[in-house]
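[step 3/7] inverse_fold.run input=structure_tokens len=376
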């Protein structure tokens, strides 16, 4: 399991309903697969691996009962995957748990459901949305000076790719003289920890605990933890049913940004790894969150092969605030300054000494573009 967090934007409540979808050929033939076998395999994996054993059993019981009742027998491909996903969410909501066919549902493409009155949407009165395929946004946008002494960068994803991590390091080095850094994660859909671990050493003057991550012990013991070998993790004693690690930052050699003001812009679209990023600043007090509460997809894990082209993202652990023991599943990470997300950058700039008029102008220049970034 390389993935720590899924790139989750499905079911986000915004003006346009957005769901992660992959690039799969519509003409790809769907093999005849025993739907009951897929369901029972998934049930067994949920029992053995899902972060909360009792909840995993509830999921498994529901899947087996539906399979025995023939609920899946006439379904194939993406329809079967969606039905099983819906059944699981009806048992207990989880922002990451889902079933996919040939990658459908896991990204990286985006499908947008446009309302009838939207440009390019169906004729008014049909009431049916149009499904539009489009490439996802780049991982990093607008990594530059937005005003004198103020650096700005938008992260849409933390993919953990070497090129992206190196780009993050270059941004931090190039803006090491900044008095303020604004991290925009309003459109951030998830990923992993590598990019975070390239950012944090620049900002902290001493070793600091950022968050706590607990993996189900049976999964960790079997070598299935996606965070087991990360240098920024420290194992600590805790609940014996979990292997608990704390996410720490070790300060880098440069001290130039240790006292820089940090603002993190959030929205209800900020999901998964973006929420971990936000919590790290909130828990440590190192940055100020501006915007609205984040999406609420907490539990980390990875994709598991179910056979027949089906996979499932199964959460095996959770991340939480070390002070409270609470995570953000279903509730999100609350901002320090609660404002409409589209005005969050204006607020951050004004707090950084920019006039209201100039802040509005600068915000408009770097506003997210494209149909997936409707009103947030």
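[step 3/7] decode complete -> sequence:
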């Amino acid at each position: 399991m390389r993935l720590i967090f899924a790139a989750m934007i499905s079911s986000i409540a915004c003006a346009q309903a957005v769901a992660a979808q992959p690039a799969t050929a519509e003409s790809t033939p769907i093999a005849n697969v025993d739907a009951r076998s897929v369901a029972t395999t998934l049930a067994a994996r949920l029992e053995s691996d899902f972060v909360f054993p009792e909840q995993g059993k509830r999921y498994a019981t529901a899947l087996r009962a539906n399979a025995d009742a023939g609920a899946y027998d006439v379904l194939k491909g993406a329809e079967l995957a969606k039905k099983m996903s819906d059944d699981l969410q009806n048992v207990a909501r989880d922002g990451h748990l889902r079933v996919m066919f040939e990658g459908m549902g896991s990204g990286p493409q985006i499908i947008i459901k446009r309302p009838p009155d939207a440009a390019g949407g169906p004729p008014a009165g049909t009431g049916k949305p149009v499904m539009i395929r489009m490439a996802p946004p780049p991982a990093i946008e607008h990594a530059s000076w937005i005003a004198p002494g103020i650096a700005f960068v938008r992260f849409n994803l933390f993919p953990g790719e070497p090129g992206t991590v190196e780009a993050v390091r270059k941004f931090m080095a190039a803006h090491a003289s900044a008095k303020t850094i604004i991290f925009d994660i309003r459109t951030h859909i998830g990923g992993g920890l590598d990019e975070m671990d390239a950012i944090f050493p620049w900002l902290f003057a001493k070793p600091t605990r950022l968050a706590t991550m607990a993996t189900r012990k049976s999964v960790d013991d079997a070598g299935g933890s996606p965070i087991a070998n990360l240098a920024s993790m420290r194992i600590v004693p805790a609940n014996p049913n979990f292997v608990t690690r704390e996410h720490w930052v070790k300060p880098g050699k440069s001290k130039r940004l240790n006292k820089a003001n940090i603002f993190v812009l959030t929205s209800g679209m900020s999901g998964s790894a973006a929420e971990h990023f936000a919590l790290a600043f909130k828990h440590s007090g190192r940055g100020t969150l501006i915007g609205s509460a984040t999406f609420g997809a907490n539990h980390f894990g990875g994709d598991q092969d179910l056979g027949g082209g089906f996979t499932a993202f199964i959460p095996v652990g959770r991340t939480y605030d070390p002070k409270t023991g609470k995570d953000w599943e279903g509730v999100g990470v609350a901002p320090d300054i609660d404002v409409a997300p589209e005005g969050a950058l204006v607020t951050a700039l004004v707090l950084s000494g920019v006039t209201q008029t100039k802040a509005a102008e600068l915000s408009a220049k770097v506003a997210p573009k494209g149909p997936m970034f409707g009103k947030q």
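[step 4/7] annotate
Residues 6-28, 106-134 have pLDDT under 50 and may be disordered.
DSSP finds nine helices and 15 strands in the chain.
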